[in-house]
């Protein structure tokens, strides 16, 4: 994870911050699975809003992880 990334979907807003190596994914159960599937290894996450709405919760984590990879693709 190269930089801090934020995203919003519905009432759920998320911020992902790079973590030191070996810290792992510090997140709730559902976003942890999404981030593992995306291949992100070390990250701290902050969630705000109605996180019980799993559809929006998963969409925002997917969107944020895609934004992270777009950033890498543009500057490499």
TrEMBL record:
Keywords associated with the record: Ribonucleoprotein, Ribosomal protein
The Small ribosomal subunit protein uS5 C-terminal domain, residue ranges: 7-59
Listed InterPro entries: Ribosomal_Su5_D2-typ_SF, Ribosomal_uS5_C, Ribsml_uS5_D2-typ_fold_subgr
BP GO terms, sorted: translation
GO MF, one example: structural constituent of ribosome
Domain of life of the source: Eukaryota
GO cellular component, one term: ribonucleoprotein complex
Keyword match Ribonucleoprotein: yes
Family: Belongs to the universal ribosomal protein uS5 family.
Name of the protein described by the UniProt record: Small ribosomal subunit protein uS5 C-terminal domain-containing protein
Organism: Gossypium schwendimanii
